[in-house]
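Chapter review: from sequence to fold.
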Amino acid sequence: MPLLFALMSIFTIALTAYNLSERALMEQMERNGVYLTQLLSRKIEGEIVHYHERNELIEKNLLVAGKAVLAVEDQLSDKQLSNIRDLFGVHEIYWYSPEGEILYSASGNYISWTPNPGDPIDHFMSKHKHKDVYVEDIRKSTERDKYFKFAYLRNDDGSFVQVGYSIDQMNIKSEKNILQNIVERITDNEENILYALILDENFTAVADSDIDEIGVDYSEDEHYQVVLSGEVSSFEWYYPQIDDYVLEVAVPLFFEGKIIGVVGIGLSMEETKKNVTLLTLMFILLAIIISIGFFILQRKNVITPVKMLNKHIQLIDTERLGVNPLNPSDNKSFSGLYETINQLFSKLHENITQIHNLNEKVEEMAYTDYLTKLPNRISLSLKFDEFVGHNQMIAIILIDLDSFKEYNDTRGHLYGDQLLVKLSERLLSIKDDTTFVSRFGGDEFLLLIMWEDHAQLNAKLQKIEEMISQPIFITGEELSVEGSIGISLYPNDDKQLDGLISKADIAMYHAKKSGKNQSAFFSKALQNTILMKNKIHDILRNSLNNNGFKLLYQPQVDVSTGEIVGFEALIRLKDHQISPAEFIAVAEEHGLIKRMGRFVIRQTILELSKWKVVGLDLKPIAINFSVKQINDKGIIEYIESLLSEHRIPAKYLEIEITESILLENDSEAIMFLNRLKEIGVKIALDDFGTGYSSLSYLSNLPVDKMKLDKKFIDQHLNESGKKIIKQLILLAEAFELDVVVEGVETIEQVRLLQELKCKYIQGYYFSKPIEDEQIREIHSKKYDIS
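The token string follows.
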């Protein structure tokens, strides 16, 4: 019976030790696996966000380069494309005819090349023929063994430009390559991880440490189906590559708050099984020693040590696998066994430490910006939630460096990275319990500040501005940095972080547009202004593409005879009551003024042509000319071609300019106006008396007329101020210029101008701007000005 009892005890202890140790170690392994996989998922999410941000910047630059080509379409050449390519840092630019033939190339190669059926360019011409803009994903060139990313922008006549980056030169990887690198890196660096894989929302493997498994369909796997619904799944399965079972942990992969796939890693169970076996052997050895002692030692010398050992074993923390060594000082009988168990715990401690270090590395990658080591967007979101919990007001501070792109372009990206690191170290110095500093992306930093009153917040902002403006030394060179700052406030402006960041971005954009190197708070009025500008921009684009503009004409009258001597053409929207003062500024800001200017020129010359057809005498029509139209390099040739096509003498077209043209580029503007004069076009200086009018302008500018602005007339056309107007008229006569007075609304003003011997007047007293059909009714009209 004692022997049978001893054997049964050994068997029971071995079985119990095996089950307990296996359950404890497997539960710990599963928890660590879940935590590790979730950190990996957040790292992948961060990489996807970074990839999309960089891809968005690349696409934006391709489109900007393409728009630059469209802007000079009338002067295209291989050299022109080469200059634009170098200016915007792209690698390829080709200009195609509407039929798909390459007409110009930045490299001078592939001229007259045409795409074959099924070629991506043929795909753009056929399947996307209604799109003005199209951007491809990264693809391999059909002509070279290289990868490119191309964008296409179509012109009005069907011709189009192709702009591209060489992926090899930019060291850009596709999203799938990025994901594949992540799974390969984690399996190469960690011995316990046998494999890793990423599935998309269709359960197709898009990345796998086993390359042969990429593209495999796992839609029938119930474990992954559960994960895609938002749960975590862990399971054991037979892994043929090692001829053993592995523990796989799968978690959801998120992007922008949505589940877009599954991340899974396979953990080796070999070490765990060894530890289970080792623990079991230790307990079996313990049982054998107890049994031997049962037969050899006296009862009193065995029972007490066994009870004490049992007590120590029960104190083992199977949840944490605590590694505090057991103390055998009170139990000399089993000191050797204690030492063996302590050695086992020491090895377990080493394994746990390795897993903990790995977790810290993955967590750092998930929550920290790779370059500056500042917290990233994920950390920012967590800190915002923490700040909100304090029930205090929070300021969101968005900092954007004003000239960072110039440093990158002129000194290289490594120089720009050093600048970001230096500035990050400086900003980090203001971090405290109420201030959180993070990198938002690119050259933007985002700060969270808890504040109690505006004085406290303004003091903090002033400190930030002073900190940014202080010189930064990079490789011994002193560098001056400027930044535009936008601020939004929680909970006044918004209660959600995304909304607050968006509003801070609006304020920052306003600060940058207002002259840079300053800060601005978000306001509803600011938001409404931007929304209105965006709305007007959309209306202008749509109107340009759908014949949404028209011209009105206001007559100019000879003050001595009452006869109409000419007209001023004024552009208006057909279907929207938006004043030109509003939409002209938006058109200039968004680069639409060139197309609008050409529309005005074309319609004006067409109107003169209509007069010829119906037998009306030709009279000059004046059109307003924006400073931005000087950059329309083909505009003079465009005017010449239209005048020639419709056989209209150039003297019947009059261009009205303002002095602001000279403020932009004095010499270039005068050269431009002289070219207009050479072809016979008349030049009038508009809004005289409201800007920077001086004698030097009248002596330098090749103008034929001087127009006095309505505001100036309203102020001075009276008995007390008429001497000023008289002097201006005499001044114009000295320069052999005709004078046109705008904004005449009363007979009293007419008579004063007659008295001052003004030659021409224009205003509501005679006529408001009228439609072109009404011109025939008043064309030969003689106004009563007696």
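Two observations follow directly from the output. The CA atoms of residues 710 and 743 lie 4 Å apart. The two ends are 143 Å apart (CA to CA).
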